[in-house]
Hints:
The protein is α/β, with parallel strands linked by helices. The protein has one domain (2-22, 93-432): TIM Barrel (Alpha-Beta Barrel). Helices cover 34% and strands 10% of the residues. The protein contains 12 helices and 10 strands. The chain has helices spanning 2-21, 93-100, 122-127, 136-144, 170-185, 208-223, 253-272, 293-297, 318-321, 336-352, 374-390, 424-432; strands spanning 103-106, 149-152, 189-193, 231-234, 282-285, 308-313, 360-365, 395-399, 414-415, 420-421. An 8-stranded parallel barrel has the order 1-2-3-4-5-6-7-8, surrounded by 4 helices. A two-stranded antiparallel ribbon has the order 9-10. The longest helix has 20 residues, at 2-21. The relative contact order is 0.14. Residues 1-64 have low confidence and may be disordered.
Amino acid sequence: MIKLVVLVVIITTAVIVLMACSPASKDAGDESDFDPDSDPVPDIIIDPEPDSPPDLTQQQPELPPPPEEYPEPTLAPVQTPSLIMPMNEDITALEFAKDMGAGWNLGNTLDAVLGANTAVSVAIQETAWGNPITSREMVELLSDSGFNTLRIPITWQRFIGPPPDYIIDTAIINRVQEIVDWAFEFDMYVIINTHHESWNFPSADNKAAVHIMTALWHQVASHFAGYSEKLIFENMNEPRLWGTGYEWTGGTPEARSVINGWNFIFMNTVRATGYNNEKRFLLIPTHAASADPAPIEDMWTPRNDERVMVSVHAYTPYELVLNTSSSRNTFDPNNTADTRDIDALFERLDKRFISRGIAVVMGETGMLNKDENHADRARWADYYTSVAANLGIPCIWWDNGIRSTTTNEAFGLMHRQIPMWYNPEIVDAFVKNQG
């Protein structure tokens, strides 16, 4: 099984390079060409509104192995889990996503980025961006308030060892497990991911990323192999062309192609660890987790794995909910000027994914605090989640712990030290449509 994963990594790495260097094809293919028993290799979708899925079954040429300076990681055998939880293998991805309900992000916490000269410990990372140590009481408050999903953003890079094996420090993975277990105690769904990593710049030249991703997800998936389907693995958070003009404008065909390939590697790496991971629900992102037309139309999704869902983020309308430089701070659900961007967003997601049987998770959204405009934030939350709920798309609020300023992205809802909600009316409006 391990040899198979390594072979897939080698072949797919080279395929990504060839794809990025070759002209993109506009051939949309024909659905009858698909072999449901084969593992299609991701390709670029260029047609903005394809009438049928792209042909991903074309024969690939013989490819050389990657350069020696990028040695393959040695993947340890998967140990038999001490407890293998029952799995619901009958639920569909669309049903599962709907059941996830309202969600909350443990933002600016385990995803904090430590400077190169900063001492490394889990506690230092967890509190580096101003939030306290996460507590069981916080998770209990989430559950008691109607939240059904906890997303735990995690930056692993300061806790993984050198190449080629990139061994994860047990301290970070044990801390993640502790928080996951608290959520499972309250029968919640949990998402764990790779978040503010600097190794996953989506370029065809970034060959090392393939091995880091494979080694990291093999270890994480092996550690949690016995957990039920309520634990969801998300490949990457907002993979994008950082620092370029394409970062937030949909990326480039090459970048979107590379992300497709990485999602393919992630999926096969997790599945190869066996046990409950063979049927676990997985989340794969678009470029920057964007729901704009180019990223979602160019996105590859597997045709032979029905337990893979699409991860997108949308802070919409931008000027109101995310732009700290904009004075716009009111929302009227009866004013089409306020609602049209939200309606258009979910119409795109429905047309591209939901109507085709592909589940979508809105992994991050929210409306920042602008001059204590909490009544407008509640009205926005009610409208946004009502439209999403009609399509069975769960929404997960981005809570970074920041509340009282409009010069920063003040998305904080929970006073974590107590814990309690700063504005229960916003929480109620966000949760009520997703029950």
